[in-house]
């Protein structure tokens, strides 16, 4: 299996749409090629930053197929299979395995949120469905079902293929530490989320990876690589330059990610289906101009 154990910057791929709102498969292939060329260590989709909840079922299947084909085993591909029930997640996971994914990632059911026994049954069903490793995504309310470190430890110990955690419940840094302690050797790694905003502290605590958006994988990878080389000061210098963009993205989420990708020539349209904040205005574009000017020399492609 490609890349085991998984480590590093696993980017959440944006799902490009044409100006008319339809799925842009050519754009998605471009996002894959860009992420690989820019130094990402793994690919993840469809997930929250991929607007997975706004995709039709056929589109979710197609996104997985396009990415798996485009990646061609060059990087590990973690397919998002979060479902409203175990049956849906299993269906998606079986398709991901057939398409060539290297692992799956799933939140617990996110509409009718299950009790602890339901969470355990959900991941057990996923584990029985394929031979792929499972990332348990611990995501906060109102979308996610926050799980305690103790429960994550039980899942990792009792369910065969639960071997990674993606932690995003605040305070994320403390949650990462608690997960590492609770899971011990039952997992191969704990990844941070939250767009990489806390990756330095997470790495210090023992996180084995981070899952940010895919608009600046080269900059995230520069932080990761410096830290892994023992250059904590260099990692912090790059991270401090990246932080204004992460703050901008915290405000505008997918709208921000896609505008950066458009400006970098990766996608043709920054169209989104889930714009909670509305379009960027002239002041936003001016601020993004200044932010990107300060990190453009860190881009590798």
Description:
Helix content is 47%, strand content 11%. By secondary structure, the chain is α/β, with parallel strands linked by helices. The chain has an 8-stranded parallel beta barrel with strand order 1-2-3-4-5-6-7-8, surrounded by 8 helices.
Strand proportion, as a percent range, falls in 5-15%
Computed structural class: alpha/beta
Q: What's the helix count?
A: 10
Give the CA-based shape: globular
In spatial order, strands of the major sheet run: 1-2-3-4-5-6-7-8
Low-confidence stretches: none
Helicity range of the residues?
Answer: 40-55%
Radius of gyration: 18 Å
Sheet with the most strands, sense and barrel status? 8 strands, parallel, barrel
User: What is the total tally of β strands?
Assistant: 8
In a nutshell, what does this entry contain?
With 301 residues, this protein is an alpha/beta fold.
